[in-house]
Amino acid sequence: MRRLIGAVLLVIFSVVLLPTVSHSAAVDFLLLDHGDGGLGPNYGLRVDELGGAPPTYSASNNGASLTLSYDAAALTAVISGTVYKNGGGGLVNGGAMGLVNVMYNLSGIAIDGNGGFTATGGSGNVGGIGFSAKQNGAGFGSIFAFDGHRINGDTTTPVFRGWIMTAFTPSGGYKCCNDFLVRAVRKPPGGPSPVPLPAPLWMLLATLLGVGGVRIWRRRRAAS
Predict the structure, then answer these.
(1) Using CA atoms, how far apart are residues 204 and 197, in angstroms rounded to an integer?
(2) Structural domain of residue 136, as residue ranges?
(3) How far apart are CA 52 and CA 29, in angstroms?
(4) Counts of helices then strands in the chain (DSSP H, E)
(5) 2: closest CA among 152, 157, 200, 215?
(6) 13 and 21 in contact (C-beta within 8 Å)?
(7) Is 182 contained in some domain?
(8) SS3 for 127?
(9) For 155-211, how does the pLDDT look when each residue is reduced to its tens digit (9 = 90+)?
(10) Structural element, H or E, at residue 209
(11) Which of 39, 166, 176, 192 is most buried per CB count within 10 Å?
């Protein structure tokens, strides 16, 4: 009887509980202003090509919330959320300030072996303004690395940087500076949600335990 109960419990665990465990390699990072920008106030995105005073966007102030979702197994990475336009950019909305949406799908991703990645391409938009990746001299459109990039005395903080071009790119070529520069903080994993056992399985388990308990009670009574 004990063996039967043990077998039933093993089946219940294998069929019901194990499928709830996630094997996804996806990780979410909260993106924050880097603090190394020279224009102030702090920002995580700068798009000079929008004209006027260099427009900057904050990734973490005034209600902004920006996330990098990276899946090392599927080789996908997406930046999404909102940024706060600090001003500037006379060609768009007259330089108006406020929250705007961001979506950036990266492509050509290769893992770096230290938890980060490089990407050769990408496309997206900020506040409805379309943009695409611009490769640097090494052929990368963006880099995400745990290297404390441009943070004094830091060699471990994850930093994302990526270069972009917009429809306002001058005919003569890329204008400095259009780029993301943000620190990243890993979000806690959600973990699997517990799944309640179906009623028939609870009834079967209760019946087996009850029958086993009666048999043990009878054996003890017969032995006394």
Answers:
(1) 11
(2) 26-186
(3) 32
(4) 2, 11
(5) 215
(6) no
(7) yes
(8) coil
(9) 999 999 999 988 776 665 556 678 999 999 999 876 544 444 455 544 555 555 555
(10) helix 199-223
(11) 166
pTM check: above 0.90: no
For residues 62 and 134, membership in a common domain is answered with yes
Domain-located, residue 179 = yes
Closest CA to 148 of 58, 66, 25, 36: 36
CA 30 and chain centroid, separation: 7
First to last CA, the chain: 22
* Identity of residue 42: N
Structure token digits, residue 106:
């990266």
The average pLDDT across 39-60 equals 80
Residues 148 and 205 occupy one common structural domain: no
Structure tokens at 176: 């400095």
Q: Which two tokens stand for residue 63?
A: 């209600």
